[in-house]
Amino acid sequence: MSEIKYFGRWDADDVVITDQGLANYISFEPVHVPKTGARYAKNRFHKSNISIVERFMNKVMGSGHKGKKHYHSTGDTTGKGQTVLGIMEETLEIIEKRTKKNPIAVLVSGIVNAAPREEIIAIEYGGARYPKAVECAPQRRIDLTIRIMTQSANHKAFNSKKPIAQALAEELIYASEFSAQSAAIAKKNDSERQADSAR
Looking at the DSSP assignment, which residues form a beta bridge with residue 134? Predict the structure, then answer.
């Protein structure tokens, strides 16, 4: 049993990755404080060495762009590390309370379940553009899933009475259960359906 626990409360001893294609790209080794300060930034595939909890937190701090416009940049997405530490701990508390399971296992399960296997690119040939199905790289599968989850949670909590921690917890719980109420699961199903029709 690991002596180090996330937030001093949760370990990752019973966490299992069901998709072996993602096993080398998800790290859930517990750390005292999930904040490495970009220690691996110059190394190739550096994100694979960072705890999945920290990667999720980093995306909560700034959930990226959507439709070529910057998404929310106020409230919980201002890049404050101390703020997002509190949000992440509260999210894991809510998950544990609702599911009676290890919240780290629910987090990993939700990300693995919602990771898309295929996506569509646009090919231009002879002046005409048409869609083509391509396989999604393992690292990109994880990045896309985390981005969709955090953007969806931010959208639900922005200008709303629902706290961001509750929105994140619901998204992760739904994804771990393969529920279409999860934005990431819905997006995965949609992209794989489009890829199937474009084959």
Answer: 119
pLDDT at 74 over 70: no
Is residue 43 situated within a structural domain?
yes
- Give the CATH number, domain containing residue 113: 1.10.455.10
Give the helix ranges, DSSP H, for 29-163.
52-61, 81-99, 103-114, 138-157
The residues that bridge with 131 in the sheet, in sequence order, are 122
Q: Does residue 7 fall inside a structural domain?
A: no
Q: Which of 15-24, 73-82, 90-99 has the highest mean pLDDT?
A: 90-99
- As a whole number of angstroms, the distance between CA 116 and CA 184 comes to 9
Secondary structure of residue 95 in the 3-state scheme: helix
Residue 114 resides in a domain: yes
DSSP letter (8 states) at residue 49: G
> pLDDT tens across 158-167, in order?
888 888 999 9
